[in-house]
Amino acid sequence: MNGVYMVVGVVFVAWFVGGIIRRKQHKNKIIQVSDNDCIGCGRCVKRCNHHVLALMHDGKCNHLVIRNPDKCTGCGDCIGKCKFNALKLVEKNKNHH
Ligand code: SF4
Ligand code: SF4
Q1: What is the per-residue pLDDT for 95?
Q2: Which atom of ligand 2 is nearest to the CA of 33?
Q3: Ligand 1 contact, 67 CB (< 6 A)
Q4: What angle do CA 19, 21, 23 make, to 5 degrees?
Q5: What is the pLDDT averaged over residues 2-10?
Q6: pLDDT at 17
Q7: Which of 26, 37, 53, 65 is placed for a possible disulfide with 45 were both Cys, Cβ 3.0 to 4.6 Å?
Q8: What is the reported pLDDT for 94?
Q9: Ligand nearest to the CA of 51
């Protein structure tokens, strides 16, 4: 029985530590939008809990803008909502050049 507890414990610790590493990896990432692919549907805007994304209307159509880049956690939640492959995570430093 102790063996079972040990296996459960090891799996839990591996999952927990893995989660920390995954978060750390994403900390240096920031969202980037490809204007050519984005149709301005706004699905990603609603999904982002950190209010990073916003839609701007230029008189003709909606454009996605990254309004609060500093608040982006690199979680990637918005990417899953985009049906047009318009979003990707990039290294923070490269994006700021
Ligand atoms: S990666 Fe996460 S925090 Fe950044 S814009 Fe997308 S949903 Fe928001
Ligand atoms: S979900 Fe995709 S297409 Fe829609 S606004 Fe966001 S980036 Fe643009």
Answers
A1: 44
A2: 7
A3: no
A4: 70
A5: 91
A6: 84
A7: 53
A8: 56
A9: 1
